[in-house]
Give the backbone structure.
Amino acid sequence: MSRERQIDDDLLENLPLPTAAFFVLFALAEGEKHGYRIMQDIRELSGGTFSVGPATLYTTIKKLSDQGFIGETTDSGEDRRRIYALTRTGKRLLDAEFRRQQQLLDLARRKRILRIGEQK
Amino acid sequence: MSRERQIDDDLLENLPLPTAAFFVLFALAEGEKHGYRIMQDIRELSGGTFSVGPATLYTTIKKLSDQGFIGETTDSGEDRRRIYALTRTGKRLLDAEFRRQQQLLDLARRKRILRIGEQK
DNA sequence: CTCCTCTATATCGGTTTATGATATATCCAA
DNA sequence: TTGGATATATCATAAACCGATATAGAGGAG
């Protein structure tokens, strides 16, 4: 349990996630995907209000991959596509980011700054 | 109402907010404050996990001020402090950002990606 | 067959955002 | 009187973001 704590503390240093990184992890949380698909799904996830272009996408993928938060599936093989998936740590990171965001929203409600969604 | 819509559409282009801008607006939503106080309160709001230094703070304040999302209170007078407050538009912007975040969290729950806080 | 669009990955050049360090000055308490 | 907290500000640099462009395969329209 203190080991779990330690890992979470390490993750905490990566929060708040950069927007692009957050969305890439979010998209991959639905299942493994290739880059172009991630790009499309981010547009959909955000309701069309947000999108990443190839420059942001592939540099973000590179970084997340180097950090060990996502990994390329080994079975890619013949295809020109490169399939990515969340690692265990990547899942935890995304979860920590979600919790961080929710805590802030809850705080905003307690402070009466945000007045929507107060139904217990 | 279509006028309200239009204004919201303008605000939408500013989302997602940069992290520092989000926290400055959040801090000011509690009431008018001077820069240094905003800095302290951001640390507190984030539970100590996030903080902005003077460089980020004052450049962010400058930008938000130029954009008309915050304003300097005219009555500052003698003091060396410069007091800032949210403008009407600034309030709306923060609210739009909160709603954007909450919608994503709700979506994550519907997709069973996020499994906390599901109590209706 | 050729052209166009979509898929798919990648990088270049430049802007925006973030940050540690430093500077300046006031205030107060040890 | 010195040292820490308050308070604002900028410099130089790094991280994040993004439009444009490049390359290439795949599929359909004319």
Notes: The first strand of chain B starts at residue 33 and ends at 34.
